[in-house]
Amino acid sequence: MATNRDSIAMSDIECPCIRDICPFIIAERKVTRLQPRHAVALLAKEPATSPFTIKVANVVSSDPRYRRAGVAKIFVQQIASGQSTEDRPHWEFPILGILNVFSSIHSSGSKVQDAAILKDLYSSFSKILDPILRDFHLLTPSGQYGDNRRCAVARLLLFFLDDPMTKRKLYEEKILRLIVHCWLETSPESSMRIYATSLVVEVTSREDKTGGPPPDYLERIFNVVKKSSLVSRVNFVLKSKSMTEETLGQEIAALANLTMQAAGALLRSLKKDVHHSELRGLIDALAHCEDLIQNLIAKSPNGMNILVHLLVNTRLVDVASEGFKKASRGPPTEPGTYRVGCFYQFFENLYNSLVLVQNSDCPLEVASAYFDAARASIERMGATTLTP
After folding, report:
1. Is 146 exposed, middle or buried (0-12, 13-18, 19+ CB in 10 A)?
2. What is the CA 341 to chain-centroid distance, rounded?
3. What is the C-alpha separation between 170 and 295, in angstroms, rounded?
4. Quick one: pLDDT at residue 377?
5. How far is CA 374 from the centre of its chain?
6. What is the pTM for the complete model shown?
7. What residues have CB less than 8 Å from 315, skipping those under 6 apart?
8. Are residues 170 and 179 in contact, defined by beta-carbon separation less than 8 angstroms?
9. What is the C-alpha to C-alpha distance for residues 238 and 197, in angstroms, rounded to an integer?
């Protein structure tokens, strides 16, 4: 995965005061005084929202004795048995503890030694996620607290992707709805948004020994989010001037993965005999596909890399060719009129790049990998390409 899952600290909710009578100060001193196994035993008697819970959650990543004393089981128990209030989730502190257990195992390279701990956590997927899903409304607030909650959940699901059994559960519609919500509703200014975006990238692309995403995962995603809502929100996010290059790269990767599958679905429609009543919808789909791809390539600082990726890994040229053919069979247009959905500009950019013609309408800087990718894609369609 491109993003280091341990690189950004999660924010917790604590009292900022430093007075001796502050419950958080008292809890911190208690944790410092106790041996890890004694702290874990005491944690089992504490409610999920107590200051002692967050203080134990914070130190879990720095000492393996906590996780080997069974602290993860206590956190899971707190989540499963707790009760949220109207405006505060009871699972917020235990989630941080579980994240720190996962993170410490991941960063220390102790997956074999801590295999039993991981197995227990993976098998507790429903116990952890069901209360979060019941409290979906607590993941809707805007602002820092809402962003922190959404990204904590996204970060948690990233770790669950590592297990083949729980990975399959992430493609259930209720979990996909949660994933897409965390991605679309987190502010582009949030430093932790990268967790939510990385989760979308991983869910739409990760290959492992059990295979990749299910073949109908795109349909499942669009069953839980309206296309218009997705496009509107993504446009808002991409207009942000404060996103880091890493975050922008992940946003583009997420869009590229969704575009790749959209192109495949569109191609299947293009190959079918379309009834005249459906022709308008197909033309609109071609136009949307062309517009998305052109903007993705032209307005990205990594436009050439995205184009090479789409040429190599998708049926983009096939879709463009079908659009081009349908335009050529259609009624003539006025001279100088551009017909949306015909991919004229797309093929013009391919041509310009192949013959090393650079102009204001073709912003791509030619990469060496582009020649092989473009030639292979176009030759597959039976066209002759120029030798650079």
Report:
1. middle
2. 28
3. 30
4. 74
5. 28
6. 0.71
7. 263, 264, 267
8. yes
9. 12
Tokens representing residue 231 in the block? 């496009």
C-alpha dist (Å) from residue 38 to 24, 56, 74, 156, 247: 18, 11, 13, 26, 41
**Cα three-residue angle 317-318-324, rounded to 5 degrees:** 85
Q: Give buried/exposed letters for 95-112 (b at 16+ CB in 10 A, else e).
A: bbbbbbbbbbbbeeebee
Q: How many residues does this entry show for the chain?
A: 388
Q: What share of the chain is helix, strand, coil (3-state, %, to 5)?
A: 65, 0, 35
Q: Are the beta carbons of 255 and 310 closer than 8 angstroms?
A: no
Q: What does the pLDDT read at residue 285?
A: 57
The residue type at 197 = T
Backbone angles phi, psi at 359, to 5 degrees: -145, 180
Looking up tokens 């996620």 gives 129
What is the Cα 357 distance to its own chain's centre? 36
Residue 258 carries which side chain, given as an amino acid letter? Answer: L
**Separation between Cα atoms, residue 355 and residue 129, nearest integer Å:** 54
Residue 151, number of CB atoms within 10 A of its CB: 25
User: 193-232: buried (b, 16+ CB within 10 Å) or exposed (e) per residue?
Assistant: bbbbbbbbbbbbbeeeeeeebeeebbebbbeebeeeebee
Closest CA to 251 of 218, 300, 217: 300
Structure-token pair, residue 114: 């801590």
In eight-state DSSP terms, residue 87 is S
Please state, in angstroms and rounded to a whole number, the distance separating the CA atoms of residues 123 and 37.
23
**Contact assessment for residue 326 and residue 272, using Cβ atoms and an 8 Å cutoff:** no
Q: Hey, what are 97's tokens?
A: 């503890």
185 is written with which tokens? Answer: 């509703």
257 burial level (CB within 10 Å; 0-12, 13-18, 19+):
buried
Q: How far apart are CA 88 and CA 97, in angstroms?
A: 17
What the block records as the tokens of 34 is 């106790």
Q: Which residues of the chain have pLDDT under 70?
A: 1-18, 227, 245, 256, 259-303, 306, 313-315, 326-343, 352-367, 378, 380-388
